[in-house]
Design brief:
Helices cover 6% and strands 41% of the residues. The protein is mainly β and 251 residues long. Residues 82-221 form the CFAP47-like immunoglobulin-like domain.
């Protein structure tokens, strides 16, 4: 019963308050009819293709009685990022360290295995290769759950500094039937070539639609001294020269 003038805008608010960490689907359907009750003329309604038939309501006299706009809505709950202490991975520059990082996923809903729910979301960048892992969950029944995970960076500059020096791999998963918490255990490899201190966010998404985020901090300290150059004076006001070679690691 909303009257809409020509070229007038209509805002339709949509609210989302999930009670489970799973993907929800709905549709906003807008049905428009002429205010005077007349139909839009259409010469041959029998020639309507299938796509158009789902977007209009045809009257008995062959005219178009109403027009439908259908907007699919996907609700993906995201666990609120609390003020957690970040998982710190520290390594001396030009060295390599492996660290074990555990992340608890609360509110996981066992049951769905549709990866389409995950791939349709905007959490994982489709331009980047995503790590897909399966978690076997058993709680009186057998359910296979899939997870996507990736590291997200605050800026492209931080990404360029960290991406080639950090590797992350899911090595173990645990399921607590009482608390219904899935714990994912990651092996993080950090091999920096220069001192740095950068933050990142580990984003985990379940095939049922839930999203969890965990802060991480990567610290690379000063490297060890390569060598000590001793310059011995040959006399007062005389120049002493020592030569040494430097090898570049890149072109």
């Amino acid at each position: 019963g909303i009257r809409l003038a020509p070229k007038e805008n209509l805002n339709i608010p949509v609210s989302f308050m999930p009670d489970l960490m799973k993907k929800y689907e709905a549709a906003v359907v807008i049905h428009v009819m002429r205010e005077n009750g007349e139909n839009w003329p259409f010469e041959d309604s029998a020639q309507l293709n299938e796509d158009l038939k789902s977007s209009v309501t045809v009257a008995e006299n062959g005219g178009i009685q109403g027009i439908l706009w259908i907007y699919p809505v996907y609700g993906i709950p995201e666990a609120r990022l609390q003020k957690l202490f970040p998982a710190v991975v520290c390594c001396q520059a030009r060295q390599r360290v492996e660290s074990r990082v555990e992340v608890p996923l609360t509110g996981v809903v066992a049951g769905a295995t549709a990866m389409a729910a995950t791939r349709n979301s905007a959490v994982v960048n489709s331009n980047e290769p995503a790590d897909i892992q399966e978690v076997q969950v058993t709680d009186g029944f057998s359910t296979t759950m899939e997870f996507l995970y990736e590291l997200q960076y605050q800026s492209n500059e931080i990404k360029s500094q960290l991406e080639s020096f950090v590797g992350i791999h899911l090595v173990e998963r645990e399921w607590d039937g009482e608390s219904r918490v899935v714990t994912l255990i990651f092996n993080v490899v950090f091999a920096p070539n220069k001192p740095m201190r950068n933050e990142a966010t580990l984003v985990v998404q379940c095939s049922t639609g839930g999203v969890w985020k965990f802060p991480m901090l990567f610290i690379a300290t000063e490297p060890e001294v390569d060598d000590v150059i001793n310059i011995e004076a040959v006399g007062l006001n005389k120049e002493s020269i020592v030569g040494f070679k430097l090898t570049s690691q890149t072109r």
